[in-house]
Design the sequence.
């Protein structure tokens, strides 16, 4: 019962965030995609402890955030479900590229980001990548974010995601 509530709560959060992003030309704080049954979710949040919430027995609540002013910190949450297990384990690779309003792109991570136990089908798992960022006073103002590919290394399935936020002083 607890696992079903976890899936339901996070999927509801993702769907609400995605619907809000689809209605405007502003930031898209969450993205969800699937390749067959393999599903991946990316979310921009100001909850730097989002990863730890998956270790607690209660259903985690992770809220998306679309604006970060200078000095504020945020995190990229990467979550997956239904990876193909081999001998009770799944392996996920994450390719993450950051982009900023000036058009700069930086490869943040390329390679394994989860190699661990398979807890069962339809359960959400956080990746091992717990990426935090801080907005500096001289960072360009505008839309920034991440382009992400999560790959299930056993099945060969892959999901491309893109999430964004506005950085800088609000006007």
Sequence:
């Amino acid at each position: 019962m607890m696992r079903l509530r976890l899936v339901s709560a996070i999927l509801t959060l993702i769907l609400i965030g995605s619907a809000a992003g689809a209605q405007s030309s502003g930031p898209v704080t969450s993205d969800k995609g699937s390749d067959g049954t393999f599903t991946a979710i990316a979310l921009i949040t100001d909850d730097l402890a989002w990863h730890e919430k998956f270790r607690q027995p209660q259903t985690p609540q992770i809220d998306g955030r679309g604006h970060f002013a200078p000095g504020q910190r945020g995190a990229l949450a990467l979550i997956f479900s239904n990876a193909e297990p081999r001998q009770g384990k799944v392996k996920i690779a994450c390719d993450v590229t950051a982009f900023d309003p000036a058009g700069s792109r930086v490869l943040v991570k390329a390679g394994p980001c989860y190699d661990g136990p398979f807890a069962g089908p339809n359960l959400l798992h956080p990746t091992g990548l717990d990426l935090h960022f801080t907005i500096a006073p001289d960072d360009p103002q505008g839309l920034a974010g991440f382009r992400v590919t999560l790959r299930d290394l056993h099945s060969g399935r892959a999901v491309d995601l893109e999430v964004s936020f506005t950085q800088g002083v609000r006007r």
Notes: Residues 2-167 form a domain with the Immunoglobulin-like fold (CATH 2.60.40.3880). Confidence is low (pLDDT under 50) at residues 1-23.
